[in-house]
Amino acid sequence: MRYPQGGGLTAERQAFREHIRLQAAELFAAGQGNAAVARELRVSVRSVQRWRRAWEDGGERALASKGPASRPKFSEALFAVLEQELVKGPVAHGWPDQTWTLARIKTLIGRRFHKSMTLSAIAQMLHRHGFSHQVPARRAVERNQEAVTGWVKETWPQVETPRRRSGAGSASKTRQASR
User: Fold this and answer.
1) CA dist 67 to 10, 34, 52, 70, 172, Å?
2) Which of 30, 101, 113, 135 is the most buried (most CB within 10 A)?
3) Distance from C-alpha of 23 to C-alpha of 27, rounded to nearest angstrom
4) How far apart, in Å, are the Cα atoms of 175 and each of 41, 101, 164, 171, 179?
5) Whole-angstrom Cα distance, residue 110 to residue 20?
6) Which of 2, 3, 25, 1 is nearest to 69 (CA)?
């Protein structure tokens, strides 16, 4: 399938799709049928039928891109305010620890901006602006790294069971010595 399912497109992908539609218009003007156009442009016949109807009603202008399907919920100015709120940290907004979760960010957006967004939309918006999800390393405050390293090097090899040596085996589920 040429087009991905769902999701907003980048300006580059929108221009690419518009170019495909305009190529279809040229083929329509040349008198080619829907199936031939679909085969040549590697799109579905249904799309070509829809484009042909639009082309017959409004010409090439009807096949031109009309811009993004929807405006983003957050403008750059609003996102800058959200970013300032995120920098303050979750404790400043009433949560008991310093961990931002998507659910907490959703609640913050609702409280601060009176907007509702899905968790996936919030994740996509944060990703577009350079944020990434991170899981904090949870370690005890009293942790002694030298003691842990010593245990891993000295004690663990004694506790760990030795690996079986590869060699001739038996398909039997019982050991040879038990027969």
Assistant:
1) 10, 26, 20, 8, 68
2) 113
3) 6
4) 65, 53, 14, 10, 7
5) 40
6) 3
Helix, strand, coil percent values for the chain (each to nearest 5): 55, 0, 45
pLDDT tens for the chain, 179 residues long, are: 344 444 566 778 888 999 999 999 999 999 999 999 999 999 999 999 999 999 999 988 999 888 766 666 778 889 999 999 999 999 999 999 888 999 999 999 999 999 999 999 899 889 888 888 776 667 777 888 888 888 888 888 887 776 766 666 666 677 666 55
Beta strands in the chain, from DSSP E residues, in sequence order? none
CA–CA distance, 128 with 130 (Å, rounded to integer)? 6
